[in-house]
Amino acid sequence: MKLLNQSLKYLSGSILIIITLWAVVFYLNMLQEIKKSIDEGLENYKRIIIQNAKKDPTILTKTYFDESFFTIHKINKKEAFTIKDQYKDTLLYMQDFDDEVPESEPVRMLTTAFKIDHNYYLLNVANSMVEEDDLIKELLYDIVVLYLFLVLSIILINNIMLKKLWHPFYSFLNQLKIYKLGNTQKLPKITTETKEFMDLQKAVNTLLEQNLAVFEQQKQFIGNASHELQTPLAITTNKLELLLEDEQLNKEQANTVSDVFKTIQKLVQLNKSLLLLSKIDNKHFFNNKVVNINKTTHDILEHLQDFSSYKNISISCKETAQLSIEIDIALANIVVSNLIKNAIIHNTNNGSIEIFIDTNSFTIKNTGINKSLDANQIFNRFHKSTNKTDGSGLGLAIVKAISDLYGFSIVYSFKKNSHCFNINFTIR
Amino acid sequence: MKILIIEDEPELLENIKNSLEKEQFLVETASDYNTAIDKVFVYNYDCILLDIMLPNGSGLDILSQLKKAGKGKHVIIISAKDSLEDKLTGLELGADDYLTKPFHLAELNARIKVVLRRNNLDGKNILQFCNTQLDLDERLLTVDDKNIPLNRKEFDILTYFYLNKNRLITKTALAEHVWGDHIDQADNFDFIYYQIKNIRKKLQESNAQIKFEAVYGVGYKIVENEAS
């Protein structure tokens, strides 16, 4: 859920509660105010009636409610003294303009007693009151309108304000999304006066700088380590080569030396791969030229022919177009040859390899173990799918590193019992 | 044939020296810039092996001084830096070849011999071994003047062995030399055996007085066939 909608959710919820409470209080207050005001009117009316009664005794005989809305009954003294001024809500039959027949309407009634010429009278004065259900209905309607109006205003204000306030944040976020350690030159920047955002930028950039330093160190370390290993490896290799030529070695010794030699050669190979990876990571290659992948593929297939025919692997190559891309030629060779070699090494004897080349992609399918490999792991450095020790576990990692360097995408899939690698040269 | 090795790593220097002496070369060494400069301008060498990173100076400086003096021939750069830039600079300065460490001694041998042959061309580019001849220009193998057909790879393999007569060539060195960087899986050199087997058969059938000898499963060497 977006921040905008989140804030809307909480605001509209709390406003609903606030408005409801406020409506109840408002209603009760208003009702009380209305009654107070009517009561004052009744009091005033009472005095006028008493005054008029003093002048015009006929009034004293008015015992029914009619147009003038009061009744007077004669009572004895004893009764009169028990009566105190009393306001109460009651009902009277009346016909409003909106009623077809008379019906009971709420009224406010003042019951009081007065004395004229030693006679005591009971006076009931009534005044029509607001109809509470009408009032509630009206109020509810207004409140719903108010609520909707408020929510709409909030949406509008939120949209404008939050968008404006959070704009630096979103632009920062987008920069972070495309940020690639070691690839992006500039650190993400936020242009704002908001303290929190400035703090965020500071924190994020500190973190990135630390990571960048570690990343650089790691790259340098691999590069330096493999570079430093070259001379000792050269010395060992050559010493063993000389030792193996020694006629005085007996067979057992020679076999041991030969085993050591083979192991050292693996180490040499591993070191070469690491150096290559480190060079790719450090972008030491960028001698880009237009390279024809079709031709590269044919050259490499020819180079590897002895290798593939030894395992009796049949290779087919279907080309629907000439695929030319701009890439360092050494790297293009490595990509294609690592993929083909991979397909040969992990193939079964008498297996097959199919290569497809179209306008923008290179696909290679090979038979092999009848099980999908872990697509998430397969391009990781030193990942080995089997326990066979021949590969360095770096061949595909190198292909991936080159693809990443140029922005190509490489995908592994397992379909119809064949392992398929597709590399799309369309730059993302 | 006199060869100067300019290399600051004593162990490596010793290895190369041992290997080259087996080839009957006269070997001299220099392990820093100043000694190297002294030697290259005082004596004449048929071939100079030159390391780039040296104490007190760069091998490339020695090379450019040699070029200025008109002596920049027969130089093979041996460097731990597999940098295209260094390679191009070196070759521009007149080096004949560029070999990246770690290298196989067989490879170094072959390169030296190629350089020596290139610079001492007597018109023919032929390698002779007993009753066999390898014509590098025509790419032909003849045994007792009879042409033995070889495919491209077989010829390349044999050439490499001819440049390393009586010397061990490991399968790794052979694979790197003939198949290039494309073959680098240390365990998958079995296919080399089939290549060797084919050549062996051809040599036997043609009564060649040379033969392949397997060396402890790690490689082969080509030697005179004493039985014939």
From TrEMBL, chain A:
Keyword Acyltransferase: no
Reactions this protein catalyses: ATP + protein L-histidine = ADP + protein N-phospho-L-histidine
InterPro entries for the chain: HATPase_C_sf, HATPase_dom, His_kinase_dom, HisK_dim/P_dom, HisK_dim/P_sf, TCS_sensor_his_kinase
Keywords linked to the UniProt accession: Kinase, Membrane, Phosphoprotein, Transferase, Transmembrane, Transmembrane helix
Histidine kinase domain location: 224-428
Chain segments annotated as coiled-coil in the UniProt record: none
EC number(s) recorded for this UniProt protein: 2.7.13.3
Top EC category: transferase
GO molecular function, one term: kinase activity
CDD domains: HATPase
Pfam family, any one: HATPase_c
Transmembrane residue ranges: 7-28, 139-162
The protein's name in its UniProt record: histidine kinase
TrEMBL record, chain B:
Domain (OmpR/PhoB-type) ranges: 124-224
PROSITE patterns cross-referenced by the UniProt entry: OMPR_PHOB, RESPONSE_REGULATORY
UniProt DNA-binding region: 124-224
A Gene Ontology molecular function term of the record: DNA binding
Residues annotated as domain Response regulatory: 2-116
The entry's keywords: DNA-binding, Phosphoprotein, Transcription, Transcription regulation, Two-component regulatory system
4-aspartylphosphate: modified positions: D51
Record-linked InterPro entries: CheY-like_superfamily (IPR011006), OmpR/PhoB-type_DNA-bd (IPR001867), Sig_transdc_resp-reg_receiver (IPR001789), WalR-like (IPR039420), WH-like_DNA-bd_sf (IPR036388)
Gene3D superfamilies in UniProt: 3.40.50.2300, 6.10.250.690, Winged helix-like DNA-binding domain superfamily/Winged helix DNA-binding domain (1.10.10.10)
The protein's name: DNA-binding response OmpR family regulator
Provenance organism: Wenyingzhuangia heitensis
Biological classification of the source: Bacteria, Pseudomonadati, Bacteroidota, Flavobacteriia, Flavobacteriales
